[in-house]
C-alpha cells in the first residue's frame, strides 16, 4: 500500500515526501533522522530513501552491494515464518530478509535488512515505458512476458498447498461479504450475493489453500524494464494461508492501466488473460476443469475485498461508500461491471462448448453429460441449444469450428457426476 496526495479530490498522486511525512507524523514517534542514522550504522554506509515508499514502512538503500533497510509499523510487521515459506516456494523472487530488532520506545518500528532484488516496480516500469490501451509490438511483448511470469508465480503456490484454518477463514469471508452486502452501494448487491452463495466452493475437498500475497499491487512486484520479466515480489507483510485465487485481483493490474480518467483494460486484455491461464495450466499440469468455477469465485472475492474496503486514518479497515473520493470506488465499480460484460458468451467460447458437448454426447458415450462454465458462471443449456439452432448444428452430428481453434481459457467444464 502507498500513501498518496490528492490534486482534484478524485485522482490520487503519489509523492515520496508526502508518503514519508505521513508515516512519521501518524504512526510513530521515531523520526526519519533517527531511522537514517540507524540504517547508516547497520550498513556502514550512507543511505537514501527508495523512490516508492509504503504506507506503513520507511525504506532506505545503501552499501555495496546495495541493501535495503526497512522500518515497519507494528500494524504491518513481517511474519518471518511466512516469509521463509515464500522463499521456499518462489525462490529468488523473494528477498532474503533479516530482522534487526526495533527502534523507538513509543510506537516502535521493526527493523529489517533486506536483499535488494533486481528490476524496478511494475508501476515505475509503466511510467518509464508508457502505456496506452493499444499496445505497440514492443509493449505487447513486454506485457506478455510479465503475464507469463505472473502465471508461473501463481502456479508455484498452487503446487505447494498448505494447511489452513478453514472454518475461521470461511467465517471471516462470510462476515466480510455480509458487511459488503449491507454497506456497499446497492448496485453491488447482486454480485456480493452471488459470491456468498458460492463461497463454500473455496472450502470444498480438493481445492487448495496456498500461501497468498495480501497486497499484490503495482508497487509490490518488480520487473525488468526492458523485457517485462518478473524479477521479484516484495512486501509480504499481509501474506496468509487462504484458498487459491484470492490474490488474483493482482492479475487485473497487468491487464490494463490507470490514468487520470480512470481504469482502462488494454485492447488485448482478453488475449493477455488467455495467455495467463494457458501458462498457468502448463505450469501446474492440470486442466482445472473441476476447479475453474471455484477459482473465479476466489478471484472475484479477492477483487471485492481489495476494492470494497479502504484504510482510514486510524488504520481501521472500513467499507467504501458512495461519496468516497479517490479511485477505490471507481476501481470496484469498473471491475465488478466487467463481470456483467463477461456473462455474455463470446462466439469462440460457444464454438468450443458445442464442440465438446457434441463430442461427449456422440463419442464419449460411456461418460456422463458435461456442464459448462464461462468465467466462473454457468453456460445455460438453453443458450447452447439456441446457438446450435441458429448455426444449423444438428444434435446428431459432431461439430468442428472452422478455422480450428484452441479452447479459450475462460471455458471450463465438468461431468455432472463429478460435481
UniProtKB/TrEMBL annotation:
It holds the Pfam family APH. Residues 93-249 form the Aminoglycoside phosphotransferase domain. SUPFAM superfamilies: Protein kinase-like (PK-like) (SSF56112). PANTHER family: AMINOGLYCOSIDE PHOSPHOTRANSFERASE DOMAIN-CONTAINING PROTEIN, AMINOGLYCOSIDE PHOSPHOTRANSFERASE-RELATED-RELATED. This is Aminoglycoside phosphotransferase domain-containing protein. It comes from Decorospora gaudefroyi. The lineage of its organism: Eukaryota, Fungi, Dikarya, Ascomycota, Pezizomycotina.
Amino acid at each position: 500500500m502507498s500513501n498518496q496526495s490528492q490534486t482534484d479530490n478524485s485522482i490520487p498522486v503519489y509523492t515520496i515526501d508526502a508518503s514519508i511525512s505521513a508515516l512519521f507524523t501518524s504512526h510513530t514517534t521515531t523520526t526519519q533522522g533517527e531511522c537514517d542514522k540507524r540504517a547508516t550504522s547497520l550498513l556502514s554506509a550512507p543511505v537514501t530513501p527508495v523512490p516508492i515508499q509504503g504506507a506503513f514502512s520507511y525504506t532506505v538503500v545503501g552499501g555495496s552491494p546495495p541493501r535495503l533497510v526497512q522500518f515497519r509499523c507494528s500494524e504491518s510487521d513481517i511474519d518471518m515464518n511466512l516469509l521463509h515459506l515464500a522463499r521456499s516456494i518462489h525462490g529468488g523472487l523473494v528477498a532474503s530478509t533479516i530482522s534487526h530488532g526495533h527502534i523507538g520506545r513509543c510506537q516502535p518500528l521493526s527493523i529489517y535488512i533486506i536483499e535488494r532484488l533486481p528490476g524496478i516496480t511494475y508501476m515505475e516500469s509503466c511510467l518509464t515505458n508508457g502505456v496506452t490501451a493499444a499496445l505497440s509490438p514492443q509493449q505487447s511483448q513486454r506485457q506478455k512476458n510479465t503475464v507469463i511470469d505472473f502465471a508461473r508465480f501463481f502456479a508455484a503456490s498452487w503446487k505447494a498447498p498448505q494447511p489452513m484454518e478453514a472454518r475461521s477463514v470461511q467465517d471471516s469471508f462470510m462476515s466480510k461479504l455480509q458487511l459488503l452486502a449491507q454497506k456497499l452501494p446497492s448496485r453491488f448487491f447482486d454480485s456480493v450475493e452471488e459470491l456468498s452463495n458460492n463461497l463454500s466452493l473455496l472450502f470444498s475437498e480438493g481445492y487448495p489453500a496456498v500461501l497468498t500475497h495480501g497486497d499484490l499491487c503495482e508497487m509490490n512486484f518488480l520487473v525488468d524494464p526492458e523485457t517485462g520479466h518478473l524479477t521479484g515480489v516484495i512486501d509480504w507483510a499481509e501474506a496468509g494461508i487462504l484458498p487459491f485465487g484470492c490474490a488474483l485481483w493482482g492479475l487485473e493490474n497487468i491487464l490494463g492501466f490507470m490514468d487520470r480518467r480512470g481504469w482502462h483494460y488494454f485492447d488485448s486484455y482478453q488475449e493477455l488473460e488467455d495467455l495467463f491461464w494457458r501458462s498457468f495450466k502448463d505450469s501446474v499440469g492440470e486442466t482445472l476443469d473441476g476447479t475453474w468455477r471455484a477459482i473465479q469465485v476466489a478471484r472475484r472475492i479477492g477483487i471485492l475485498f481489495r476494492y470494497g474496503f479502504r484504510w482510514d486514518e486510524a488504520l481501521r479497515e472500513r467499507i467504501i461508500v458512495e461519496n468516497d473520493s479517490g479511485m477505490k470506488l471507481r476501481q470496484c465499480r469498473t471491475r465488478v461491471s466487467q463481470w456483467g460484460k463477461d456473462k455474455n458468451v463470446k462466439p469462440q467460447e460457444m464454438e468450443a462448448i458445442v464442440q465438446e458437448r457434441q463430442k461427449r454426447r456422440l463419442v464419449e458415450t460411456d461418460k456422463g453429460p458435461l456442464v459448462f462454465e464461462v468465467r466462473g458462471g454457468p453456460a445455460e443449456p438453453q443458450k447452447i441449444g439456441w446457438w446450435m439452432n441458429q448455426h444449423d448444428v444438428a444434435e446428431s452430428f459432431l461439430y468442428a469450428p472452422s478455422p480450428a481453434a484452441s479452447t479459450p481459457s475462460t471455458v471450463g467444464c465438468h461431468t455432472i457426476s463429478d460435481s
